[in-house]
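Blinded run. Sample ID left blank on purpose so nobody reads anything into the name before looking at the predicted structure. Input follows.
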Amino acid sequence: MNREQQAMGGPGQPTEAALFSQAQAGCRDSLNRLMATHEHLVHAVVRQQVLGHLPFPEALQAGRIGLWRAILGYDPQRGLAFSTYAWRAIMHQVWREVKVTERQHGRDWDHLAVAAVPLSTGGHLAPAEVWEVSAVYAAVRALVARLPDTLRIVIVARYGFNGKGRAAWSQIGALLGFSRERARQWHTEALIWLRQPAHSQQLRSLLGYHTVADYEAAEAGTQHWLRWRGGRSDHSS
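Blinded prediction complete.
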């Protein structure tokens, strides 16, 4: 049992694992205690979501429904922290409400977001799909904007975020005064930075890469890169 499951256990008090069992058996008091204890997860998820036309109070209510469902479906014996399990359930419920709201405002959103739809789709997207693609694009742009200067220049040039098309390694190297190989190395380091959960939480939430396994894979990639660089990263923050 992890700390999170033991947290509510004290002298004469049930452990959190016991509260889950009681709540799932129909005990309203246990359910209410767990809802109150984990309310902060709802607020954390909603603050990081792109809500569009969905009012903040309604997003919170949707998040609470997701939390309620997570409590009823959680199995402490699987070893997964409840916060990790609940995060996705809350995010999914809020995202569903966002999509419903955006369907109701389909024309307005389609007008505002159509420029963000990839040309490869031919523009044949439903309003909810337009919203989803645009939300991801907005999260990517915000994430790239946070990169350290050199890494940001490499990513923007390599993927054509500046509207000039994808740049070759030689072009990027010339732009920064580096060799082609150095440009490739900066690109790899930029991707490592972008994948770090501390930087990419919102984008991971939108794409569904928000599990313990996803975080472990990101950390493994970072450690592999640091070993290759001899334990040194010029842009670790």
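Unblinding after everyone has recorded impressions. Residues 156 and 162 are 6 Å apart (CA to CA).
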